[in-house]
Amino acid sequence: MALVLKLFFFSLLLPLSYCADPIAHYCAQNDTSNQTQININTVISDLTTRASGGGFAVTSFGNGNDTIYGLAQCRGDVSASDCSACLASAAQQLPVACPNQADARLWYDYCFMRYDNVNFVGQSDTDFVTILYNLQNATDPNAFDNAVIKLVNKAKSHAVYAGRGSLGRKKTNFTEYMDIYALAQCTRDLQPLDCAQCLSSTLQYFPIYCSHRQGCQVLYSSCMVRYEIYPFYFPLDANAKNSGVDKLYTKAILPPH
Questions:
Q1: For 188, which DSSP code?
Q2: Using omega within 30 degrees of 0 as the cis cutoff, is the peptide bond preceding 235 cis?
Q3: Cis before residue 15, ω within 30 degrees of 0?
Q4: Please, what are the domains in the chain?
Q5: Is-above-0.85 flag for pTM?
Q6: pLDDT digit string, tens, across residues 201-246
Q7: Nearest CA to 71 among 47, 91, 52?
């Protein structure tokens, strides 16, 4: 009941404009025990409260095999109000997306939330991946791809160099009429080396899914990389040259291997 009341309170704080759907979710480890569900509810409630204040939280609740571990993180550039709203939405949707599952993960544009009956905190997780890519191809595709890789690597390096959980944001002028924007981030529980390795592993999907594409993002449970030809991270670029591009995307989901 306490969880329901708390989630209801957070739902009242959701701005009317916040209606984004989750980008992806992952469910595993079927478990219908009452104690596990109680622990899951407690972890979700704790994550929602604590991460709303600082953009990141890890927690655990339970004993022995019934212990549930949780993590929540907002994208490092979003406002506190958007972070709180996103986490409240994730807290509502995660149990719905993964009923009776002891391993559940939910990705939004602005935040990520997960829980598991195995302690994953501090471990880089690159098993499950979601890739979203724009259906529109860039002009001068080879030059565009080269510019993207250089920019993404700069964003990755910036995220790692700046410290745990820091956000890498970079922009480059591709043509007189087009800029490219890139963003990279790891979950804050990772050490810098693990963060660098996680971000590097996202690049293996670029030749397969992102080649020539005007926009693409690769989402792991521990890190993410994204680029677009329009400003998508904050603060928004007031001098953007190409904000009116087609935003038609498709999704590829690769299960754990």
A1: T
A2: yes
A3: no
A4: 2-116 (3.30.430.20), 129-254 (3.30.430.20)
A5: yes
A6: 999 999 999 999 999 999 999 999 999 999 999 999 988 887 666 7
A7: 47
